[in-house]
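Quick one, tokens below:
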């Protein structure tokens, strides 16, 4: 069963590379994140689990950021133009959050799985 989840998640990742528009790409990416989270948990593969735990909020943000920008531009810093120094700040912030979450969760899982370090 777990192998089937792994293959389904891999197919979902492959499908994201075939997408031409952003919304379907993000929806399939979120599906792949969820499938890989379950797969990584069931197979006890911490790097896969942590990676997709970090990618999931990034994909949600990238899916809903355009709607937030158009509904209330003041929610996001910068004027939104590509040349603006603060135009990529929201995405950078989410990237940093994802990396930090991945590191913290990885360290936590290492200490939980090997209690000799505590």
């Amino acid at each position: 069963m777990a192998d089937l989840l792994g293959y389904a998640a891999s197919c979902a990742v492959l499908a994201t590379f075939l997408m031409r528009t952003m919304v379907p790409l993000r929806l399939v990416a979120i599906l792949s994140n969820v499938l890989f989270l379950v797969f990584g948990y069931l197979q006890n593969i911490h790097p896969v689990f942590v990676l997709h735990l970090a990618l999931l909020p990034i994909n949600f943000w990238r899916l809903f950021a355009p709607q937030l920008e158009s509904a209330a531009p003041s929610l996001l810093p910068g004027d939104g133009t590509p040349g603006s120094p603060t135009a990529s700040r929201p995405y950078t912030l989410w990237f940093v959050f994802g990396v930090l979450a991945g590191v913290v969760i990885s360290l936590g899982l290492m200490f939980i799985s090997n209690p000799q370090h505590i």
